[in-house]
Amino acid sequence: MQIFNSANNEDGFVLIVSLLILMVLIVLGIAATNTTTVELQIVGNEKVAKDNFYKAEAAAYEAAQLLENETAENLKNRDLGGGDVSNDGLVKDDELS
Questions:
Q1: Which one, of 42, 19, 18, 22, lies nearest residue 30 by Cα?
Q2: pTM passes above 0.70
């Protein structure tokens, strides 16, 4: 009869170690996938925010140009003699009541 010493029995040790390493790699892969998903969402949100900023900036620039052009047109059409100019777009005091 042969007595097995459990301290010297290393059968299956490589299998257990390889399974543990495989589990660590799986956890790292899942963490990397989650991180990548979050990073993609951040980049998408940043792109939308940047696009909205550029659109708002373009609208503000266009509004400034319209105001500048409108002011120049109003200055050209004004009667500097103090007369009543009907096409300046301003509401007269007598029209308010």
A1: 22
A2: no
